[in-house]
Design a protein that fits this description.
alpha+beta
């Protein structure tokens, strides 16, 4: 049996006037969730809160009947519909949406849902691996061989995302699963971290022998030291023998 210990924190950063990020950590240790709102004046913080609240609600009422892959699908579908319905009732919020990360732990497996350019990583045996692929314009151009990853980091259109919750009736989210082992450290984060801090620096922090809270605080501190141009949210979950 495995047990999850976790930490999460969100910070407004140094340049924004509000925080459009949201996250949730299951008290039972069965899920981690993160969302990054978009739309600015169009209430991105409402969209991210809808995703996180929907996650909490479905787990709280056990509406997934014990099937983790189904709850992940349902959360993305239902939150997408709720954001769209909110915009219908509040047309002044047209254009709001959110990225979303949701990882659910079931036995010796994880199930991961993803949309947008927030990311989920796993740090295993000293190696940091990005599990998700950004749904962004520059990532599409990287895939087509039109941009190098290095050039994409400085591209003026690097913040344009191609998929997000709350924009279209049908949400094209990625869904994946994998095995977990003792010692795995999962990182969910908004692009306020990854735009500011390179993977090699993230890996160095995660490898340092200290509490999750200190690792999370350090990552946020590094993002702010690098400019803090966006809200930054970090959620960490470590798998241990239970």
């Amino acid at each position: 049996m495995f047990k999850l210990i976790s930490f999460g924190r969100t910070d407004m950063g140094l340049k924004r006037s509000n925080n459009e990020d949201a996250f949730s950590i299951s008290r039972k240790g069965d899920f981690l969730a993160l969302a990054d709102g978009m739309g600015g004046a169009a209430a991105g913080e409402v969209a991210s809160k809808i995703f996180v609240d929907t996650t909490i609600e479905l787990f709280l009422h056990n509406q997934h009947n014990g099937k983790s892959i189904e709850i992940v699908k349902n959360i993305f579908h239902l939150s997408n519909q709720r954001i769209l319905n909110h915009v219908k009732d509040h047309p002044e919020h047209k254009g709001m949406g959110c990225t979303a990360e949701l990882i659910v732990f079931e036995g010796e497996q994880y199930i991961l849902g993803h949309v947008g350019d927030s990311r989920t990583y796993v740090f295993r045996n000293g190696v940091l691996k990005q599990l998700t692929k950004d749904h962004s314009l520059v990532q599409d151009q990287i895939d087509q061989g039109l941009l190098t990853p290095e050039a994409a980091k400085k591209h003026h259109l690097r913040n344009i995302i191609t998929r997000s919750g709350g924009i279209h009736e049908q949400l094209a989210r990625d869904l994946m699963r994998g095995e977990i082992i003792s010692g795995d450290l999962f990182l969910l984060c908004s692009d306020g971290l990854t735009d500011m801090v390179p993977d090699v620096a993230i890996s160095a922090v995660l490898s340092f022998p200290q509490d999750l809270s200190k690792k999370g605080e350090k990552l946020i501190e590094m993002a702010k030291d690098a400019g803090g141009y966006d809200n930054v949210t970090v959620v960490l979950g470590e798998i241990i023998e239970g």
